[in-house]
Design goal:
heterodimer, A: about 110 residues, mainly beta, 3-stranded antiparallel sheet, B: about 120 residues, 7-stranded mixed sheet, 4-stranded antiparallel sheet, about 0% helix, globular
Chain lengths: ~110, ~120
């Protein structure tokens, strides 16, 4: 069965501090890996996907196939990064983790 | 419209009532997905359409849940004889790709409360 684990329910950091959101997955085959974000009062939206190898809003995500992890990182968190973040591997459909709430304090 | 549109935004139902939730995907998007998001949880897959064909309904929790997309555009998720455990946000997403994800465009959701 597909499973996605985001062990931290809440991450609270100060502005300018690094932030890392962990994601471990168990998935048959070779899924595509995504991070989705939901800002307050906004709809769920794509943040980044592994295949693009892009840095979006200063975030990067490292895929470790051996550990089946896809952790999301940002070296200097900003207040506007406060949101819910979901890790989501996908075959023909997305499988979401439980989400991590990030709170960036001034 | 520019994005995925869902209606109604909020629905309150008495236990045992039937409800119908509507999703208008982005024009031209082939794939359409329904997810259920309970409070404090991540979205969980319900069902997937490619055009009018329902290719995967493995996530529908019971036979009270039914989804259709008869003309390959608008989709309706119907829940019969609603129960309290059906209370959740129901999300619709659409994608241009015809082979499943990447699912990139989500609607704002319908929040269903069953009393």
């Amino acid at each position: 069965a597909q499973r996605v684990t985001q062990p931290e329910k809440l991450l609270s950091v100060f502005k300018g501090a690094p932030v890392e959101l962990k994601c471990n997955y168990s998935y048959s085959g070779s899924p595509e890996l995504f991070w989705y974000v939901q800002y307050s009062r906004q709809r769920l939206q794509l943040l980044l996907r592994h295949i693009s190898r892009e840095s979006i809003k200063g975030f990067t995500a490292d895929l470790n196939k051996g550990e089946t992890s896809f952790h999301l990182k940002k070296p200097f968190a900003q207040e506007e990064d406060s949101a819910m973040y979901y890790c989501a591997p996908a075959g023909n459909k997305l499988t979401f983790g439980g989400g991590t709430r990030v709170l960036v304090k001034p | 419209g520019a994005g995925v549109s869902q209606s109604p935004r909020y629905k309150v139902a008495k236990r045992g009532q039937d409800v119908a939730l509507r999703c208008d995907p982005i024009s031209g998007h082939v794939s359409l997905f329904w997810y259920q998001q309970a409070l404090g949880q991540g979205p969980e897959f319900l069902t997937y359409f490619q055009n009018e064909a329902q290719l995967d309904k493995s996530g529908l929790p019971s036979d009270r849940f039914f989804a259709e997309r008869p003309e390959g555009s608008v989709s309706t998720l119907k829940i019969q004889r609603t129960q309290q455990e059906d209370s959740a946000v129901y999300l619709c997403a659409s994608s241009l790709a015809g082979q499943g994800p990447p699912v990139e465009y989500f609607g704002a959701g319908t929040r269903l409360s069953v009393l």
